[in-house]
Amino acid sequence: MRIGVLTGGGDCPGLNAVIRAAVRKGTTVYGHEFIGFRDGWRGPLEGDTMPLDVQAVRGILPRGGTILGSSRTNPLKIEDGVERIHTNLANSGVDALIAIGGEDTLGVAKKLFDRGVKVVGVPKTIDNDLGATDYTFGFDTAVNIAMEAIDRLHTTAESHHRALICEVMGRHAGWIALHAGMAAGANVILIPEKPFDIDRVCAYVQSRFKTRYAPIIVVAEGAHPLEGQMALQNGELDAFGHVRLGGIGESLAREIEKRTGSEARTTVLGHIQRGGTPTAFDRVLATRFGLQAIDAVHAGDFGKMVALQRTEIVRVGLDEATRELKTVPVSRYEEAEVFFG
Ligand code: F6P
Fold first, then answer.
1. Residue-number span of the structural domain to which 121 is assigned
2. Residues with Cβ < 8 Å from 297, sequence gap 6 or more?
3. Number of domains making up the chain
4. Catalytic residues
């Protein structure tokens, strides 16, 4: 079989580990051939390919990003996009695809599967917001990067008696904020799933200052206050219709200063959370996903996504994986709330 591989959406640490595992097992155990499609769905859409063999995947296990490149191209938004993909797959002699991506990339994979493309999906996102899998790779790395940053903010916040706000990614899910905030002992964690009460946040800040211990507030980019949207959204949409988030950290700092009279500053971690080398957890999870994805392709079990459930890698329908966003449950947030203030 000739198998095409692509990585779509925002990149995340561990993508190369998936590619390496699928190519290594697919070649040496099953005798398949591989071809890389560049920049997510743009590759098959435009017939942009690159060689992908065992030699090409040597040494990439610890490397962040993706050797295939990525993009947020949505072929379903392009007239004759699906037909062009069919034509280009046939022209490249590709029998099946492994699509590594988040809800958008896998949503496209599902629709292409419905239209006859043989595809297996692999869940990727630092946001950890995909249903049907307990974890996505990239999340653990992002949490560790954010945790280290928050640890560092603690010491400088104390020296200067400031409230420091750390804005983290996660889009409409608060997983990164929750885990990083909990791991690093944040004063308060604000997530999109629970609109926050600014009076309460300021009370936490003031009580922390009273103990001569500077407050650290971890805020997810999608968090918003009870009384209305405070995030500074520029309104720009990507090809999948997602608004670009950001700005809530700055708004929060201004509001805290105004209400408490204490100095407040914001650090926006941004794409640093997605860069660099994956943690051991993400390398192992990504490797296991890659191995299971090639097993699914070899078995002809298409229209599936590999998923982590407890400690096992299982196959679930692509529709199940993309049906709804996995957000932070109330009970998980309540665990963290014990430490607020
Ligand atoms: O989905 C991953 C993610 O990093 C989100 O946490 C974030 O909102 C978004 O991608 C940022 O996207 P971009 O790469 O377009 O800046």
1. 2-138+278-321
2. 1, 3, 26, 32, 96, 98, 118, 120
3. 2
4. 127
